[in-house]
Design a protein that fits this description.
Helix content is 0%, strand content 58%. It is built from no helices and 9 strands. The strands form 2 sheets. It has a 5-stranded antiparallel sheet, with no helix packed on it. Strands 3-8-5-6 form a 4-stranded antiparallel sheet, with no helix packed on it. The radius of gyration is 14 Å and the shape is globular.
Protein backbone atom coordinates (compact mmCIF):
# COMPACT_ATOMS: atom_id res chain seq x y z
CA UNK A 1 0.00 0.00 0.00
CA UNK A 2 1.37 3.42 -0.93
CA UNK A 3 0.24 6.44 1.04
CA UNK A 4 0.45 9.78 -0.75
CA UNK A 5 3.08 12.09 0.63
CA UNK A 6 1.71 14.89 2.81
CA UNK A 7 3.40 18.22 2.03
CA UNK A 8 2.83 21.41 3.99
CA UNK A 9 4.56 24.55 2.78
CA UNK A 10 4.41 28.19 3.68
CA UNK A 11 6.31 31.43 3.01
CA UNK A 12 8.94 32.69 5.46
CA UNK A 13 9.70 36.20 6.61
CA UNK A 14 12.89 37.59 5.08
CA UNK A 15 15.85 38.00 7.48
CA UNK A 16 15.55 41.32 9.30
CA UNK A 17 12.32 42.06 7.45
CA UNK A 18 8.68 42.02 8.30
CA UNK A 19 5.93 40.01 6.68
CA UNK A 20 6.16 36.79 4.72
CA UNK A 21 7.78 36.59 1.32
CA UNK A 22 6.58 34.02 -1.24
CA UNK A 23 10.18 33.86 -2.48
CA UNK A 24 11.41 32.30 0.81
CA UNK A 25 9.74 29.02 1.74
CA UNK A 26 9.83 25.90 3.85
CA UNK A 27 8.30 22.57 2.80
CA UNK A 28 7.58 19.75 5.25
CA UNK A 29 6.97 16.35 3.65
CA UNK A 30 5.82 13.47 5.86
CA UNK A 31 4.94 9.94 4.87
CA UNK A 32 4.59 6.43 6.21
CA UNK A 33 5.07 4.66 2.88
CA UNK A 34 6.40 6.38 -0.26
CA UNK A 35 7.56 4.34 -3.23
CA UNK A 36 9.21 6.29 -6.03
CA UNK A 37 9.74 10.00 -6.50
CA UNK A 38 7.34 12.39 -4.80
CA UNK A 39 7.28 16.18 -5.26
CA UNK A 40 8.26 18.17 -2.16
CA UNK A 41 8.22 21.61 -3.79
CA UNK A 42 6.81 22.51 -7.20
CA UNK A 43 9.05 24.28 -9.69
CA UNK A 44 8.30 28.02 -9.85
CA UNK A 45 7.73 28.25 -13.62
CA UNK A 46 9.12 30.74 -16.07
CA UNK A 47 12.79 31.62 -15.73
CA UNK A 48 12.86 31.08 -11.96
CA UNK A 49 14.57 28.29 -10.02
CA UNK A 50 14.39 26.80 -6.52
CA UNK A 51 17.39 27.17 -4.20
CA UNK A 52 17.89 24.85 -1.19
CA UNK A 53 19.42 26.40 1.93
CA UNK A 54 18.56 23.81 4.59
CA UNK A 55 17.64 20.14 4.64
CA UNK A 56 16.41 17.93 7.49
CA UNK A 57 15.62 14.22 7.11
CA UNK A 58 14.29 11.85 9.77
CA UNK A 59 13.90 8.08 9.22
CA UNK A 60 12.61 5.48 11.65
CA UNK A 61 14.08 2.40 9.93
CA UNK A 62 17.11 1.41 7.84
CA UNK A 63 16.62 3.27 4.55
CA UNK A 64 18.08 5.19 1.65
CA UNK A 65 16.57 8.63 0.97
CA UNK A 66 17.29 10.42 -2.30
CA UNK A 67 16.73 14.14 -2.84
CA UNK A 68 16.78 15.36 -6.44
CA UNK A 69 15.12 17.09 -9.36
CA UNK A 70 12.10 15.82 -11.21
CA UNK A 71 12.96 13.26 -13.84
CA UNK A 72 15.96 11.92 -11.86
CA UNK A 73 18.37 13.89 -14.06
CA UNK A 74 20.19 15.38 -11.05
CA UNK A 75 20.51 13.98 -7.52
CA UNK A 76 21.49 16.39 -4.74
CA UNK A 77 21.97 13.81 -2.05
CA UNK A 78 21.69 10.12 -1.30
CA UNK A 79 21.39 9.58 2.44
CA UNK A 80 21.76 6.07 3.88
CA UNK A 81 20.32 5.50 7.34
CA UNK A 82 21.82 2.35 8.87
CA UNK A 83 20.51 2.39 12.42
CA UNK A 84 17.05 1.23 13.31
CA UNK A 85 15.02 3.76 15.24
CA UNK A 86 14.71 7.50 14.70
CA UNK A 87 17.82 8.84 12.93
CA UNK A 88 18.28 12.41 11.68
CA UNK A 89 20.45 14.40 9.31
CA UNK A 90 20.39 18.19 9.39
CA UNK A 91 22.32 20.23 6.79
CA UNK A 92 22.76 23.96 6.18
CA UNK A 93 24.27 24.98 2.84
CA UNK A 94 26.33 28.17 3.07
CA UNK A 95 26.14 28.34 -0.71
CA UNK A 96 22.55 27.40 -1.64
CA UNK A 97 21.99 24.50 -4.02
CA UNK A 98 20.32 25.75 -7.22
CA UNK A 99 17.93 23.45 -9.06
CA UNK A 100 17.60 23.62 -12.82
CA UNK A 101 15.19 26.38 -13.90
CA UNK A 102 11.51 25.41 -13.47
CA UNK A 103 12.22 21.91 -12.04
CA UNK A 104 10.37 20.34 -9.10
CA UNK A 105 12.23 19.15 -6.00
CA UNK A 106 11.54 15.47 -5.30
CA UNK A 107 12.21 12.87 -2.62
CA UNK A 108 12.39 9.09 -2.88
CA UNK A 109 12.19 7.41 0.54
CA UNK A 110 11.57 3.93 -0.76
CA UNK A 111 8.72 2.27 1.12
CA UNK A 112 9.59 3.59 4.58
CA UNK A 113 8.43 6.22 7.03
CA UNK A 114 10.31 9.50 6.75
CA UNK A 115 10.05 13.22 7.26
CA UNK A 116 11.86 15.64 4.97
CA UNK A 117 11.95 19.38 5.67
CA UNK A 118 13.48 21.63 3.04
CA UNK A 119 13.99 25.37 3.37
CA UNK A 120 15.01 27.70 0.57
CA UNK A 121 14.05 30.49 -1.76
CA UNK A 122 12.95 31.13 -5.33
CA UNK A 123 14.91 33.42 -7.65
Amino acid sequence: MTTAISVTEFPLSPPGGSGASPLRWIANARTTDVSGDQVIKDGPGGALALYITDLFINCVVNATVIIGEEGDAITYGTFVFLAAGPTNVNLHFTTPIKLTTDKDLEVDCGAIACTVIVQGFTA
